[in-house]
Amino acid sequence: MSEPLDPEMFDPVCPSSAMPIQIGDKWTAMVVLCLAGGPRRFTEIRVPLRGVTPKVLTQTLRAMERDGLVTRTAYAENPPRVEYELTPLGRSLLDLVAAARAWSREHLPALLAARAAHEDGAPVGAGRPEA
Amino acid sequence: MSEPLDPEMFDPVCPSSAMPIQIGDKWTAMVVLCLAGGPRRFTEIRVPLRGVTPKVLTQTLRAMERDGLVTRTAYAENPPRVEYELTPLGRSLLDLVAAARAWSREHLPALLAARAAHEDGAPVGAGRPEA
DNA sequence: CAGCATCCGAACCGATACTG
DNA sequence: CAGTATCGGTTCGGATGCTG
Asked: Does the record's keyword annotation contain DNA-binding (chains A, B) (predicted)?
């Protein structure tokens, strides 16, 4: 599995940004998806997560490592190479992520419609229920 | 379904507080569970969510209402009575919540163990995902 | 009973700049 | 390449006190 990740794997325009389901931190679920096909390098993961800064991605990866979701393997080469890979525990999240995505495909439009309808009648500063 | 909710429905000691899965805001998933059995009143919902302030619960409920997950019915009585009930859309989250809980039952101990093991070797201020 | 108002602290995310 | 360091802004959740 060495095909490069699709840069548009996570379209920023996709309403999934408004998804009420979250796994770990903001990027955790996406990282899980990125690593679903096998080990990936730091920079490789950054591509589909357009806009994520190295600091934040490092935070996410470190947290996942702490929680036993990924393994980090550094090769003492030049240039340096580091690979992240899902552990069995991390892989166990794939089902959940899939379930969340299935829910979104099926019900997110209705949720978004309800939200839009409320914004019509309620011109109050609608809070963004995004975490 | 008028039996009072179990005050210990969500034990604060339960490691689910460390759960990496979140539906909506912090309390949304628990509210969904509270309303699974039928309509409930504001104060009734507060009981199992020990510690939640009315402000935050109102925020949660309002957001859920906006998103079409619950309906709010106020009865112009004295004393005032308000009931919240899951919509079909809100009920559609029950499967997802169940999936998340199933994952937790099965894998959360391993995650917590991994985290604890890391804290042994890394005495750095480990990010506590709990408030 | 069912909220609302106000203040506060913590968490998280992001931009920018710099290094082995 | 793979990070680290620093700074800042936004959001969220909680405590307290008051009202129709």
From this structure: yes
